[in-house]
Amino acid sequence: MDGQFLQIEKRFRTEIEGLRFIAALLVAIYHIWLGRVSGGVDVFFIISGYLITASIISKINKQGYLSFSKYFGGLLKRLLPNVLVILTVVAIATFWIIPSSIYGKTIKELIASLFYYQNLQLAFSHTDYLNSEQAKTPLEHFWAMSIQGQFYVIWFILFSFIVLLLKKLKTIHIHTTINIILITLFLGSLTFSIFQTSTNQQFAYFNPVARVWQFALGGLVYLNLFKIKIPVMFSNILGWIGLVGLILTGIIFDVSTMFPGYVALWPMTCAILILLSGNDPSHFGVEALLSRPILMKLGGISFGIYLWHWVLLSFYKYTVDTHISTLIGIGIILLSIALSIITTNLVEKPIRHSFGKPVFMRLGAFFTVVLCLIGTLGFNYKLNNPTYVKDVPPNHAFPGATAKADYQNKKNILPRIKYITNDKSDAYDDGGMIYQGAKVKPLTYGQKDGYQYHILLVGGSHSSHWLGALQQIAEKDKIKITHLCKANARFTMGEQDALSQKWMENTKDYIKKHKDDYDLVFTTADVGNDEETDVPQGFIDAFRYLESLDLPVFAVRDTPRLDINAIEAYEKNKNVTIDVSKQLPDKNFQPMEDTGAKVYDYNNYIAPNHTFKPVRGNIFVFFDSSHMTNTFSRTLGPVIKDDLMRELQSA
């Protein structure tokens, strides 16, 4: 290529280094003490877009093209060292520190993090990053690194195409062309992000398509920011507004339901204001603070700080306490900084500043060691996995829900804790638990031929976890079960997220069309974390709709939704007890029964006398904070059978 690819004003933006540290510090602070998203990762994304665009343009200006080997070789030397060190630490810790209940999950995420698809692993395993009640691995934060790696691949392809385009069409205005392409990416991805956040926020959070706009915005800032000139005083004010706005992001917004849609524009805009103020440096601007030598040095290790803080936080929670005091939190941050300095200086820099095949051979050897460690973990997991007892009936050895309140549990407990998160209703493995979209997907269980009664099990995951109980009954009685459930949804006319409401409409239409097929509808009657004494009106309206279709309703009171993960609590204290009086207040179900529905409360078999114990009758009750294991659900079959058969016979 003759001449330079693109001329952009060159200046080392010292404030970027300080901003990177502030972003990493915010992520750590919000994770440690607030349990919320800070907007710091979004700042990382815009900075990454800015810096990689600058780097690519510089490379093309020097070489006339974008070299595959030099581009990805440089990235590997910069990104892999810290990652490999931390994955090694986590892999070794998995043998001794990681809770058994997330052993298998951690192995999967080690592989996903090593190969930079952790965001997709979390998305397709239906992880809710913002839900503090879900069991967390020490690697969940690697989702951001994975998206960043995927973005670097996209940018290589994009700019290689642009170079090719320039060679074919030498008359194009390259600056305008790149701007048009990046603006198109920005608008398209942002629009998609807003849409998917409103319909499936958990998936959108990890979806690279819903995140590309953040990197594209960074590229646009690099291409155009230097052109913007504003009065120094106004620039200073904007910069400080940006810094304060960034710090307050997680406090101002309910990010648990709004990220990464349009709300993510807030931290991005704050970052842009900070960068804009750096166009005209002054002693009173925010860039003067961010350009201080100490912040610049810390910014240089911000990648390591981000990676280490979550690992250390997780280890502390696994081994000591889930409550993080001010002193302990500060200690975690300082130790993250110290470890980042060590890994950066002793591992990353020597590799990054080395050249030739030997450095890649060392990286390859290190990569192989990590892969072997993960393989050993996986082999150990499979080797110690007994024949999985999924359909154990209630019996003398494993009474489960049928055990007396004062029953003393034995040492042999089902399911094995390492595999407990697999012990869900059959609908999960069969694809009947809908996570994405609003499509109705009925699945049948029990006696599919020659049945006498047909039950429709409908609702969300708290309806689905009763499938085991119904299957246990259906094994001996002529009952067919149709499962019709969606995760995070409820069978209610009340307010839900947009996707769940659409699913509810589709479900109503389906039931109306097939109403003559069913003898009874089995569903939940309320929400187990609702302290109100009145049942939700939306449930009453839904049951009234079923009444209009002449469909009898067998409604069970919801199981208590704990404030903590039951298995994590058990692993810390085998004798832990949890008072669930708050989740199970005295409630007036009469308005619901006035619709003709029959309401039953079986929580005394789950948490006798409002006292929840993770293990009951030698069986784990929940696999998380509120969902019954399928093994325990089956032991509720004999408990509900008489009531259920009476309602079926009178239907």
UniProtKB/TrEMBL annotation:
The keyword Transmembrane applies. GO terms for molecular function: acyltransferase activity, transferring groups other than amino-acyl groups. GO terms for cellular component: membrane. The chain crosses the membrane at residues 18-34, 40-58, 79-98, 142-166, 178-197, 232-253, 259-277, 298-318, 324-347, 359-381. Its main location: membrane. It comes from the Bacteria. Keywords: Acyltransferase, Membrane, Transferase, Transmembrane, Transmembrane helix. Belongs to the acyltransferase 3 family. This is Acyltransferase. It comes from Staphylococcus coagulans.
